Amino acid sequence: MNSTSGLPRQPRRAFLARGGAATTLLLLQPKGVFGAEANSQVALGLIGCGGRGSWIAQLFAANGGYRWVACADYFPDRVAAVGDRFQIAADRRYTGLSAYQRLLASPLDAVVIETPPYFHPIHAAAAVEAGKHVYLAKPVGVDVPGCLKIAQAGQQATAKNLVFLVDFQTRANDLYREALRRVRKGDLGPLVLGEASYPWAGGGRGLPPADPEQRLRQWYYVLPLSGDFIVEQSVHALDVATWILDAAPLRAAGVAGRKVRPQGSIMDHFAVTYWFPNDVSLAFACIQSIPEVKDEIRCRVFGAEGVIDTDYFGNVFIRGNEPFPGGNVGNLYTTGVQTNIREFHQFITTGNVANPTVAPSVRSTLTAILGREAGYRGGELSWDALLKEAKVLEPDLRGVKS
To answer: Domain 173-333+364-389: which topology?
Structure first.
């Protein structure tokens, strides 16, 4: 998910294996599935009813192609608020860490997952196994095993004629898409060097609460739940960088620290150098909780014939021998989601289960994890070593209700 809101559920897979056309839209026959106009809406379940979950639920409702039929969250107050707002039946509102299992065992077509990142692989894999289409917030996970679980779930979704979409807003923007099309065409010439950054005034300076339930409410400061902010938020910038470079890094060296956040919290800054194939390097920096900082999600990549310049909060353009004037992306935070919601519906109703967002989202999340691990260690770490180590982040969920 994109912000410090949302909600959890309990680990691993414990759901009913549901088969048959009654619980999933069989996309090979979209006309037969939807038929009359009255039946053309996709029946949705929301897993994670926090701030972003309730916000995105309204965008799905406004699209017109969906109807909310179920919701799940650890906290009853959040479930009640979403349930009341979207007129979800009382017996389709589920609470507790295992709430997602009961939601997935109920009749619906697709799920929207807006929980803390630790739970993304658990919930998404369970949804695919239960025969549901998946709309997943970024990042896809907090550790290597979680990311690989998402990669496998995406492949299984395609095999089961299910749509699986990861909600990166930049990838849904026409200016970004056109600029990247030109990069692929070779308008920059051979790529030479990149730089990316994500300064943010927000993020706060909190500590993980001692109370286990409050840790779920303030999960952003809990490393195993959020993955640290380089993974939870700064993945936006790294996703654009790996999109442009069209590769995973070979290795990274970095530093990280807490200068404004207290000990026991997540970091407040990272500086990482990544090395990519073909001797291309990327300098990356991210920092939070500095008053009056101008928010940017910036990425520039220089080629022998020009430079692509992108900012989530500003303009996208190419300068060089083959210029692209581009323009301002506007309110990408909202419009990118609206495009993803619209395309998710189109993919479902037309049977397009190519699921092209999964693999690059796994790649960029692993890139962020590589940067986190290099930063925490204050040294260099290779991509291969990261995957071989397969370090697991596991939160302490003792004291919370199942």
So the answer is: Dihydrodipicolinate Reductase; domain 2 (3.30.360)
